[in-house]
Amino acid sequence: MEFIMAFLSSRVFIIFSGITVIVVFLRFIYDFISWLRGVTPIFFRLGNALSKREIAIFASDVAFGDLRDALIDSKIFKGKNIVHIKDNNIDKARGKTIFLVDWETFGDKIDQVFSERKNHQTAIVIYAKPGNIPQEKMCDIAKSGKHCSC
């Protein structure tokens, strides 16, 4: 036991221990900086891509206000990129990159909403209470995408 205590308190062990701690600390700093340099540009690109997206909200006046406020409060989307689509001007949504559909207001016009997409890259988000969308309509919505298991 005395041999171990003498070895641990020797100058050689203390020097190597200090060098090891410094190397591990520098490696940690290097890895952290490398991680930041790799991840930060992705977050900026993703954030810019989302904030520049044009969003069409298909909803009544009351639901539009609530949904718009929720999107703006998230600080991801800009208010100037959000457009209100009423049931008499669905064609105004053409060219927008994200459709946010209030099911209570536009559930009966969902086929028209899908037909206004410029391509299948246009994201459609349906805002509905749980269980409000009938199962057969869910299958129709799924079939309008590329993959369907109905």
Architecture overview:
- The protein contains 6 helices and 4 strands.
- With 150 residues, the protein is an alpha/beta fold.
- The longest helix is centred in the first third of the chain and has 41 residues, at 11-51.
- The protein is elongated and about 90 Å long.
Strand and helix layout:
Elements: H1 2-8, H2 11-51, E1 55-58, H3 61-73, E2 82-85, E3 98-102, H4 103-106, H5 110-115, E4 123-127, H6 135-143
Parallel strand pairs: 1-2, 1-3, 3-4
Strand content: 5-15%
Determine the fraction of residues in helical runs and give it as a percent range.
40-55%
- Derived from helix and strand composition plus strand pairing, the structural class reads alpha/beta
How many helices? The count is 6
For the biggest sheet, the summary is:
4 strands, parallel
Rg calculated over all Cα atoms: 28 Å
N/C terminus separation: 72 Å
Any idea what the shape is?
A: elongated
The strand order across the widest sheet is: 2-1-3-4
What string gives the helices and strands in order?
HHEHEEHHEH
**Residue runs with pLDDT of under 50 for 5 or more positions:** none
Overall pLDDT, averaged? 84
Beta strands, count: 4
What is the structure about, briefly put?
By secondary structure, this protein is of the alpha/beta class. The protein is 53% helix and 12% strand. The chain is elongated and about 90 Å long.
Task: List its salient traits.
150 residues, alpha/beta, 4-stranded parallel β-sheet, 12% strand, elongated
